[in-house]
Task: inverse folding
């Protein structure tokens, strides 16, 4: 059986929160008939019977037998469980992060997972209901991350929470965002002379900032899912994304340049806006991959580096690039 | 058995895409012993045996028996399935949207759901694997919505898709966003005289736009989940959210006003920025609930009204309010 995961995670997101012990357990020497009798006699007690877990005398996990396999065997009285069990079944550890357990379940197309300690001793199982609950919880959490809301405790209470609690959950990121916004005002102020020289540049601040944020959000959403679901080669992935962003950047830059020339009749502003937008789109893609990658490398949930944090950083950088391009081209 | 859902949904998201027929089916008059024999003889064929579905002679769904219940009954030869079945088991229709099926499964804490047609005739079941797959698919889709990517066909291919396909998926919302951004430049241009009179106002454009978008994104994330998971009273919910937004708006407005006075030494700009931010935060909350509510009422997925569309609308409105407040207070 291959080792299924690496990173040690905080206890409150570990598989051990969910694992149940009330699943059928037999020894390798148990006969199929006796295993069936166990299921019949303890049907009410077991929380899940889709698999029978097969242990050695030392209670190490040796394999599993699915209910279908258990029922279809003909020579039930003579066949031993050890001879029919599946030895290559995926498993997890008590400290495995629940999101990793979900990944393993999906990748192996199974609805139950045995949990073993570091010595291979069986300590329980994740049942289909656990897996459904975890997937549902991770789903809500991912969505809330995008809104800049990080919930470490009871996620479902948000809908019934007191107003004070909700404000405490929502305000911190908004204040961090506000501080980022204050920094942005200072950057704009640095380029006061540039703005005085060409006030039209001010009109394009929202679209410059919006486009970087939008491209960044798209890239990050796709990247975080890709990281969560499959092993990806970051360098190759980044190269591909840069290729895509160059095409996207080219299209939107041409469009905004045409618009600027048609509506504002100024070729210099058109050039500044288009060039800044092109650079910003590519930078947005690089940042949108680099930030979650950093979080992932540091052993943190990459989704934590998404949403508000990336948006603020991108807002500030895109302004800086816009004004720098303007200052360079106007003088 | 209560009717479980109302809205007819497009075929490609309907339960019928997933339903399997290979589940155990018996009649009310079948004995428990015969039902057990059926499981044994067809174990390999059935895709899921967590429940045995009990039908009338007309193949209408009469109830279900869980595997545990089936195994624990003692008088197996004399007991009839009809006497031990659970008659109040949730069910869905072939055209039920898969997301609604998931809601029903989670609300009832079951991992399998029978599917019946409009006459109550049993047509198949959703197995735990189907439910896991649907939940996983909806999860990815919700995340991609936030990035302005709407996928109607094969969602998983995005990671392996050709660059041309990815650009086709990503570019439309970006171009719509760009058009929104062009509209924003025209709004800013309308207030050219205001900006000329007080250039400092231009420095605050990014933070004004950012704060509305951030508050809107938070509100919408929480609201869409609330709508998806429970029946909520929209008026009451909106009132509560407005209360929260007034507190949040008050805090961020005071902070930005203090910053403006300290750094830019201008009380008039401080007043304009703070007032505009306060109005914008409340408006962002109202819009963030109103837009998904509209989509929901129109029978569309409320998540479609989130993300990029709401962001663009909020960007434009927040600019309009900012400049209007400025024009009103400066003259």
Result:
């Amino acid at each position: 059986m291959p080792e299924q995961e690496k990173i040690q995670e905080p206890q409150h997101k570990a598989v051990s929160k969910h694992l149940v012990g009330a699943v059928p357990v037999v020894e390798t020497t148990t006969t199929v008939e006796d295993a069936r009798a166990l299921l019949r006699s303890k049907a009410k007690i077991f929380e899940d019977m889709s698999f029978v877990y097969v242990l050695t005398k030392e209670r190490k996990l040796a394999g599993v037998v699915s209910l279908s396999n258990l029922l279809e065997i003909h020579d039930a009285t003579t066949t031993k469980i050890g001879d029919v069990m599946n030895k290559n079944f995926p498993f997890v550890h008590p400290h495995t992060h629940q999101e990793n357990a979900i990944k393993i379940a999906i990748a192996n197309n199974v609805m139950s997972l045995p949990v073993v300690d570091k010595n291979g001793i069986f300590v329980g199982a994740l049942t289909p209901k656990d897996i459904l609950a975890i997937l549902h919880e991770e789903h809500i959490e991912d969505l809330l991350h995008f809104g800049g809301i990080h919930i470490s405790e009871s996620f479902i209470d948000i809908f019934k929470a007191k107003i004070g609690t909700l404000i405490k959950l929502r305000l911190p990121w908004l204040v961090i965002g506000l501080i980022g916004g204050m920094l942005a005002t200072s950057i704009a102020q640095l380029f006061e002379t540039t703005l005085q020289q060409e006030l039209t540049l001010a009109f394009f601040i929202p679209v410059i900032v919006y486009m970087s944020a939008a491209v960044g959000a798209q890239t990050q959403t796709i990247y975080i899912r890709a990281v969560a679901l499959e092993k990806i080669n970051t360098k190759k992935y980044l190269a591909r994304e840069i290729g895509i962003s160059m095409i996207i950047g080219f299209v939107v830059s041409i469009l905004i340049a045409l618009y600027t020339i048609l509506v504002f009749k100024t070729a210099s502003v058109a050039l500044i806006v288009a060039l800044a937008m092109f650079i910003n789109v590519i930078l947005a893609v690089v940042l949108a991959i680099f930030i979650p990658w950093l979080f992932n490398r540091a052993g943190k949930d990459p989704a934590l580096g998404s949403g508000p944090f990336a948006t603020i950083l991108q807002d500030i950088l895109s302004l800086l690039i816009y004004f720098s391009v303007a200052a360079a081209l106007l003088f």
Notes: Residues 149 and 277 of chain A are 29 Å apart (CA to CA). The two ends of chain A are 67 Å apart (CA to CA).
